[in-house]
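Q: How would the structure tokens look for this protein?
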Amino acid sequence: MLTTLTEDGDAVLILDQTLLPREIVQRRLSTLAEAAHAIRAMQVRGAPLIGACAAYGLALALRQDAGDAALDEAIATLAATRPTAVNLNWALARLRRLLAPLASAARAEAAWREARAIAEEDAAANAAIGRHGMDLLAEIAASGRKAPVRLMTHCNAGCLATVRHGTALAPVYAAHDAGLAVHVWVSETRPRNQGLLTVWELAQAGVPHTLIADNAAGLLMMRGEVDIVVVGADRIAANGDTANKIGTYLKALAARAHGIPFYVAAPLSTIDHACPHGGDIPIEERDGRELGAAPDVPVANPAFDVTPAGLITGIVTERGIFPPEALRELA
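A: Here is the predicted structure in token form.
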């Protein structure tokens, strides 16, 4: 199982995901600036992994200066890196609550311990998501249709998007380890083609898969070649509306049109109970150069869209599977 973030005592080691799958390069983050760049430039990506990396970035900053002004400045720097993934602000708020009452001399060590706890909790939560989500795949397998279970995902919500196990792919890995036959349709997810990361890690794990252009998803569903859709999430509003990589909404619409269950897999830390509905979720607008257009071409490049709760069959968390309308009970 891939591990995307580790520590060596003085620094944090990450896989540079901007180079995958062509090159496997590990980066060493030893300063606040390096951690902030890693998040902003998408060397680390995926809401849970961003949160863990931000926590370590704050701990690194406090080794240089742990005063109140430095704490506030470091949190502001990290919070500004990516606006949509709620785990980023969740991790920073958790650290602020812990550190604010402490004397400056105690903050750096306490921050490092808490960052480690956030990383370990993420791995445990995602393992639990895998166990709960595998039950959905087992039900499909037991329904009498021929193996394998054909699951479609979008972008990358696997090991590379988390500290360990993944979110949307955690049930796939759990099923594969248990001997349940699964095939994954992998949407390449333009413009950054992050499905290529999913293909790479599924190949590492020996899980059968097929790469598709992101706009081929509807045709496969129409043909009856998809049993279930499972995606990750960058922020889930209190009413169950879910922000995820651009193109997720279209898959949810196609799944509803063809009677295919559509699930979101995410840890509880991705639920933003302070955000009433999807219209309040900030959508990151990325540099238009990612689309490869000429400099004089007007470009809109939203990185995420919002899938309304009414299109979501259920949300798979570490505490079980819940209908979107039940999320308020988890606050």
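The radius of gyration is 19 Å.

The domain at 5-121 is CATH 1.20.120.420 (Four Helix Bundle (Hemerythrin (Met), subunit A)).

Upvote if useful.
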